[in-house]
């Protein structure tokens, strides 16, 4: 008889940035941001169980493009938590992906956040939210938000978070692109575009008060024209085909469209669920995306969904 050790499964959401204001490049290479995140109902499921060694296995959307070695953010999350807890790091980490890889939707960050929550539960660690957030921020700028979920204003590198009042459910269509974009390359392209136009050099990014008011009203018609992403020109420069995708989404009836984070996924805000399904069908037929998903937001952050 084989004995299977107990497992914990965590569901971790994708994110979209409804607003992404990027300040100048800092001496440490990062950029100060003012961003509004929303967690979406497109999830990776992360299952962990005790094992002799630390291994990561990935299946699902884009799994072939994920390195299952020490560079994997889930692997690094397990190592970081083991060091914090003074615990051996022997674990099997199984990741079932739905979030596009290198898609600008925090897929790697979701796997890291999911691993932190799952392993803390498996080992019954007494770790508070602040300590978990600090570990998360060391792993990547978006990881704390994936723990947090909902809708939030992010500052600093994006890791300093306060909740944003958001009424009702927003309906999104996500257009997945062929191939990914490297986040550092997109930020570097933005720096290059700005260096060529010093007169347009950025100041400190401002808080998007109009968008925050629109989110509180819950009216997607008010939110859509306020979607904004400083990284979008850089992402479009690196992947010009995305211009067609963005145009096709609004022509199909979306209220607004934007490149998600550093791209290349494009996110379209729709009036309601029926409209989102119709926009998704039209985009799928238009040949401007590798795949199309319908998702709602906001949803909760990474949370335990199963004990095996
Ligand atoms: O924090 P994370 O590892 O996800 O960031 C990946 C890369 O994205 C950084 O190395 C940096 O090039 C860029 N980045 C940035 N400013 C931020 C967040 C990320 O320049 N606030």
From TrEMBL:
Example GO biological process: terpenoid biosynthetic process
- Xref: InterPro entries: GHMP_kinase_C_dom, GHMP_kinase_C_sf, GHMP_kinase_N_dom, IspE, Ribosomal_Su5_D2-typ_SF, Ribsml_uS5_D2-typ_fold_subgr
Upper lineage is:
Bacteria, Bacillati, Actinomycetota, Actinomycetes, Mycobacteriales
Q: Does the keyword Nucleus apply?
A: no
> What is the protein name for this chain?
4-diphosphocytidyl-2-C-methyl-D-erythritol kinase
Q: Where is the active site?
A: 15, 142
Q: Which family does it belong to?
A: Belongs to the GHMP kinase family. IspE subfamily.
EC number(s): the record gives 2.7.1.148
Looking at the record, the residues that make up the GHMP kinase N-terminal domain are 72-150
The Swiss-Prot or TrEMBL record annotates one GO molecular function as: ATP binding
Kindly report, in one word, the top-level EC class recorded for this enzyme: transferase
Q: Which gene encodes it?
A: ispE
């Amino acid at each position: 008889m084989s004995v299977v050790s107990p497992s914990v499964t965590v569901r971790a959401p994708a994110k979209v940035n409804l607003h992404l204001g990027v300040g100048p490049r800092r001496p440490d290479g990062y950029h100060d941001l003012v961003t509004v995140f929303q967690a979406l109902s497109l999830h990776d499921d992360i299952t962990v169980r005790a094992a002799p060694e630390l291994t990561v296995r990935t299946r699902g959307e884009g799994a072939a493009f994920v390195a299952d070695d020490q560079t994997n953010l889930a692997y690094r999350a397990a190592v970081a938590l083991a060091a914090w807890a003074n615990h051996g790091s022997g674990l099997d980490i199984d990741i079932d992906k739905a979030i596009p890889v290198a898609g600008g939707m925090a897929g790697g960050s979701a796997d890291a956040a999911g691993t932190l929550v799952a392993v803390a539960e498996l080992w019954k660690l007494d770790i508070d939210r602040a300590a978990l957030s600090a570990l998360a921020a060391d792993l990547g700028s978006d990881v704390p938000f994936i723990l947090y979920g909902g809708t939030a204003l992010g500052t600093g590198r994006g890791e300093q978070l306060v909740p944003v009042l958001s009424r009702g459910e927003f309906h999104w269509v996500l257009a997945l692109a062929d191939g990914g974009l490297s986040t550092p390359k997109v930020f570097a392209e933005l720096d290059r575009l700005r260096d060529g136009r010093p007169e347009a050099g950025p100041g400190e990014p401002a808080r998007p008060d109009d968008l925050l008011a629109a989110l509180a009203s819950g009216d997607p018609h008010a939110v859509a024209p306020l979607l904004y992403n400083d990284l979008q020109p850089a992402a479009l420069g690196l992947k010009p085909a995305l211009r067609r995708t963005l145009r096709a989404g609004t022509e199909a009836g979306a209220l607004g469209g934007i490149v998600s984070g550093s791209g290349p996924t494009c996110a379209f805000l729709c009036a309601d669920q029926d409209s989102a399904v119709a926009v998704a069908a039209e985009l799928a037929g238009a040949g401007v995306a590798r795949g199309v998903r319908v998702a709602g937001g906001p949803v909760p952050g990474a949370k335990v969904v199963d004990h095996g």
